[in-house]
Specification:
two-stranded antiparallel sheet; about 750 residues
Length: about 750
């Protein structure tokens, strides 16, 4: 049986690797796919830290059952302390054990015939129930003891939860008392327990335990006796106070017991009997069931999107019953997302590792399921807006070196899926040098309730509508550069060199922003990245001129066209801010002062606030041609024992890419077949080179990338490229000698 399980798990892991994909976002999901297809595709890419061990399904059934709670509640309600029970437990021995318990406890534990009858009744009729309760208690008691100790409450009160709820967090009494500690609605609200449509903190073991300890503290201040505190917990402080008055001022539980409500009369004996059985279970042959789970083997994670237990169960392979057990405060098996509030999910530690390693993919699937929900009102509004809004304007963007589809879509405020659809793109790679079609709506909001007028006005229409003194407006797009804070979540295989290259910053800056002393970074950590990015804002200004209206409009239209050109190349222009001078601008954008003056026809260092400066020679930039590229293909001959998964891992590509490059319909490959395993675009040097390339060649500074292999060391790599180990450390921001396979190193050959 064990071998069969291990084989099944091994096959599961193997299939996970074979069908792994590099990238996942909500965009690639098609509406015609079934939920199971999307779920399988996401789970195939999951990173598994280790195989999870779930709680036994039989135990989950046991926990969900309320039979223990119902039986124990009925016993306490109908308990008769005066009825003798025939059970083999000598009275002298019982007195000795109760005396020893009294020495260790602040409760008044004294022998009496009623208590003996209750203890013998539980031992005779509820021995199996206590075996189950002791198994469950191993999960809850550490939480109870922590809460009780924080308020200096007797730890023996943990047994009260056994009497109250039979350790079932979803227990509800006939009068509405809920949870492990059986809080009524108003009492729960009084002690800051959140109760709403989705959440009931009375069911939360931790929160309700701290509320219970606070209640005990307040009651002890009133009565000064722990026996009476327990009586007030069951019947309320008012009933206890009345019983004291009716008993002539006596304040011992056993003296006022006959004046308490019937249910409370058997409450303290049941509590003391429970304490006795837990303390002396071995002596009576009671063997606790195995621990269902350990609280220290679980952890919580804050949820960033509304999720259902069903979705979490499907994604993480955790039974819904286990999620109910670990997260009993969620009444509808839904974890809500409410702005300004934090909601947490408790999972086994190994499942927490899977969740955090694949958080983006999990939320992508949740959003995909949400997107499939029918929204008739939104569809109606969307169609109405599309009719009433101005016609879409078409723009073209030429893809430059280093740009990605994600950056382009962010720049124009559009979805990447729309960008791919408009330009018939299948992959997520930006085709270098190609002009991409972009549709944008740039209507100006109008205060006219009857109709919205477009921002582009023809000369004839304007002449007919207004007189020659009418106001004409123009739009200006102002480009500025500001520091933008981003966060990078460290993934498996990341290092500071790769992260700094990705965002175009230095390793030293990344260390400085994140207060890092060495080059080691933790998996899952969020690193702060500060980038200087352009910000485009649209300003609507009135055209002030004494010219006729037609001339005004022509000026405004011409001005808008000029600003659109600037917006197409925002990195080539900069709007002068307050306090700027030509020297500070040249230093900020790393250009020569003489070039900046030449490009803008300036004689001195003075510049006016609000004026736009060219940051490059726009005439030469317009004439510059994109470098020609050629596709470099790498082929691999299939050997015995190969499969698409192993080949894909060897060349660090996706299985889907190999199938596309070789027009394969399935995963079957023949021995000896030549497969294309890599396609890369490489720049072709034809004698002509850009200004930057000339500078690089003049400096004789050629940068190479080397991927660390198993067995490599800094010394062996330095020897291969005829450089020193100190140079490699300097180029890559490395302080120690340790290298990891797959790490990318920069090598400067000069």
């Amino acid at each position: 049986m064990i071998i069969k399980k291990i084989t099944t798990l091994a096959l599961l892991l193997a299939s996970t690797v074979i069908f792994a994909q590099d990238d996942l976002s909500i965009a690639p999901f098609k509406k015609d796919l079934t939920n199971k297809q999307v779920l399988d595709s996401i789970k195939a890419t999951f990173v598994h830290d280790k195989i999870a061990s779930c709680i036994d399904s039989l135990w989950m059934k046991e926990l969900a059952s309320l039979d223990l709670y119902n039986e124990l509640t009925l016993d306490i309600k109908n308990i008769n302390v005066d009825e003798k029970v025939d059970y083999e437990l000598p009275t002298a021995l019982l007195k000795e054990r109760l005396k020893k318990m009294d020495e260790k406890s602040p409760f008044n534990i004294e022998y009496n015939q009623g208590l003996e009858n209750v203890i013998k009744s539980f031992l005779k009729n509820r021995k199996r129930a206590f075996e189950r309760l002791m198994g469950i208690s191993q999960f809850y008691f550490p939480m109870f003891e922590e809460a009780l100790a924080s308020q200096n409450i007797p730890l023996e009160i943990k047994y009260l939860a056994v009497v109250e709820s039979a350790l079932n967090p979803r227990a509800v009494s006939r009068v509405g008392a809920t949870g492990l500690w059986q809080f009524m609605y108003q009492t729960g609200k009084q002690y800051d327990l959140n109760i709403n449509t989705y959440v009931d903190d009375r069911n939360d073991p931790l929160k309700s335990s701290y509320a219970a300890t606070q209640y005990m503290t307040n009651m002890y201040k009133i009565f000064g006796d722990w026996d009476l505190v327990l009586a007030s917990y069951n019947s309320g402080p008012g009933n206890v106070a009345k019983a004291i008055r009716r008993s002539g001022g006596q304040q011992n539980y056993w003296n006022i017991r006959k004046n308490l409500p019937k249910e409370t009369q058997g409450y303290l004996p049941a509590f003391l009997a429970t304490m006795y059985i837990f303390e002396y279970h071995k002596e009576h042959g009671i063997k606790p069931d195995k621990a269902i789970a350990n609280h220290f083997a679980t952890d919580t994670i804050m949820i960033k999107n509304a999720m259902t237990f069903k979705q979490i169960s499907a994604l993480l392979d955790v039974p819904v019953a286990e999620l109910q057990f670990l997260n009993p405060s969620y009444k509808r098996e839904v974890i809500p997302f409410i702005t300004g509030e934090n909601h947490y999910l408790r999972l086994p530690i190994d499942k927490i590792a899977v969740f955090t390693s694949n958080e983006d993919k999990i939320y992508a699937y949740v959003q995909y399921e949400e997107s499939r929900r029918e929204r008739p009102y939104e569809s109606m509004l969307a169609s109405r807006d599309s009719i009433s809004s101005s016609a879409s304007r078409v723009k073209y963007h030429r893809v430059r070196r280093g740009e990605s589809l994600s950056e382009i879509s962010d720049r124009y405020g559009i979805a990447m899926s729309d960008l791919k659809k408009w330009n018939n793109l299948r992959s997520s790679k930006a085709p270098k040098g190609k002009k991409l079609k972009i549709y944008t709506n740039e209507a100006v909001a109008s205060n006219d309730k009857k109709s919205a007028k477009p921002d582009t006005i023809s000369v004839k229409e304007s002449t007919a509508i207004a007189s020659t003194t009418a106001k004409v407006f123009k739009e200006e797009k102002v480009v500025s550069f500001k520091d933008v804070v981003k966060y990078h979540k460290v993934k498996k295989g990341d290092n500071l060199g790769e992260i700094s290259d990705k965002y175009g910053v230095s390793v030293a800056d990344v260390k400085k922003w994140n207060h890092l002393k060495g080059s080691n970074i933790s998996l899952g950590a969020s690193l702060k990245i500060i980038k200087n990015e352009r910000v485009v804002t649209t300003v609507r200004k009135e055209v002030k001129s004494n010219k006729p209206l037609e001339t005004k409009i022509e000026t405004a239209v011409a001005s808008n066209e000029t600003n659109d050109d600037i917006a197409q190349h925002p990195k080539d222009y900069y709007e002068v801010q307050r306090g700027d001078n030509l020297f500070s601008i040249a230093k900020k954008f790393n250009v020569r002062l003489e070039d900046l003056k030449k490009w803008n026809n300036l004689d001195d260092l003075n510049v006016q606030q609000g004026s736009k400066l060219a940051l490059a020679n726009t005439e030469e930039a317009a004439k510059e041609e994109e470098p020609k590229t050629e596709t470099k293909i790498v082929e691999y001959k299939v050997k015995k024992g190969d499969n698409l998964g192993s080949i894909a891992r060897k060349y660090n590509v996706a299985v889907a890419d190999i199938k596309e490059w070789n027009e394969l319909e399935d995963n079957n490959i023949k021995l000896g077949t030549s497969l294309i395993v890599s396609k890369k675009e490489v720049a072709v040097n034809e004698g002509k080179s850009s200004k930057k390339e000339n500078i690089a060649s003049n400096d004789l500074d050629e940068v190479k990338l080397y991927y660390v292999k198993k067995g490599d060391s800094l010394f062996s790599i330095a020897k291969r490229y005829n450089v020193t180990t100190a140079d490699i450390k300097k180029w890559n921001g490395i302080k120690n000698e340790s290298l990891k396979p797959g790490m990318k190193l920069k090598i400067n050959n000069g």
